[in-house]
Amino acid sequence: TYLRQRAASELLGRAKPAAHGGFPLLVKLLDAAQDLSVQVHPDAAYSRRHPETHMKSEAWLVLEAQPRARLLRGINPNLSAAEFAQHVRGDSNLPPSQSRVPADLLSVPARVGDCHWLPSGLCHALGAGTLVAEVQTPSDTTFRIYDWGRGDPRRPLHIEEALECCLIGSAQNLGNSGLTAPITAVSAAIGQSGVTVRSLVAVEQFECDLITLAAGAKISGNPRGLPESWLCLSGSGSMGEIAVTRGGSILIPASCDGFCLSAIEPITALRTRARA
After folding, report:
1. Contact 48, 229 (CB under 8 A)
2. Beta bridge pairs of residue 255
3. Which of 136, 213, 255, 271 gets the highest tally of CB atoms within 10 A of its CB?
C-alpha cells in the first residue's frame, strides 16, 4: 500500500492496477490439509452487472501431493445448466455421501509439477494433501457452491451467485486453455549455462515461468517496465544483496533497470509477470 501510494509509477510502470486499486498480482502458497470448498469466481461481465464484486482468475502449480491427492476442476460437460442447478440447490448442504454435487465435478490427479489454469467462472476446489503455489488477480470475491456438508456459519454458501457465474458444458476451458506449453512440458534451455525456463501460463492477467538454476548458475533479467514477483520454491542464493531462500519472495518494481539471481544451492523459482 505504501509503495502504491508513494511510488505508483515506479512500482507498476505499464501495469494496470487491480479493479479495486490494488497491486495487480497476488502470489501465495496454499496448503490444503483437508478438502477446500468448491467455489467459483466472477468474470468481468458479472462484475459489470454487480460493481461490488471483482473479476478473479488464478493458476495452481502443484508443489507437493500425497498419494491419491486430487483437485477438482470443472463440471461434467454432459450436465445441463438446469441439471447442475437442481443438484446444487437440493444437495449443497448435504455431506458427500448424500450429495450429488461431488459426482458432478471433474476430478484431476494432483501431480507435482502440473500447472492448472482456473479462469473466471470455472468451478474448482483444492483437494486434501496438496500444496500449490497460487497466482491470481487480487480479488476477494469468492462464491462457495459446496463445502462438503460442514455447515460452518463462518463459511456461508453463495448458491445463486455461484450458479450465475459458473461455466457449463463446452464453455469451460477444460483443456487448460492459457497454458503456453503442455502440462508435462520439459524445461528448455535459454542460453545461460545451468538455467532452464518452463513457460507455465500466459494469459491476459499475468504470465508465469518455472525457472531452475544449477548450483553456481546465474540468470539476469530486466522487467522492461512491468513488475515481477519471484517466489523461491527450493534452494538458496542471492539477488544482489537480498538473500534468497525457500519460501521467500522478491518483488521487482517496473522501474528496476536490471537484476541478477545467483544460485548457491540449486534453485527452483516461480517468476510471475504482470501484464500491461
Report:
1. no
2. none
3. 213
Shortest CA distance to 147 belongs to which of 96, 104, 98?
A: 96
Q: What CA–CA distance (Å, rounded) separates 220 from 201?
A: 21
Residue with cell 508443489: 63
Instruction: Give the separation between CA 182 and CA 52, rounded to whole angstroms.
Output: 36
Question: Any catalytic annotation for residue 100?
Answer: no
Look-up: residue for cell 525457500?
246
Q: How far is the C-alpha of 252 from the C-alpha of 78, rounded, in Å? A: 45
**Catalytic residue (choose from 4, 73, 111, 144):** 144
Beta bridge partners of 126: 71
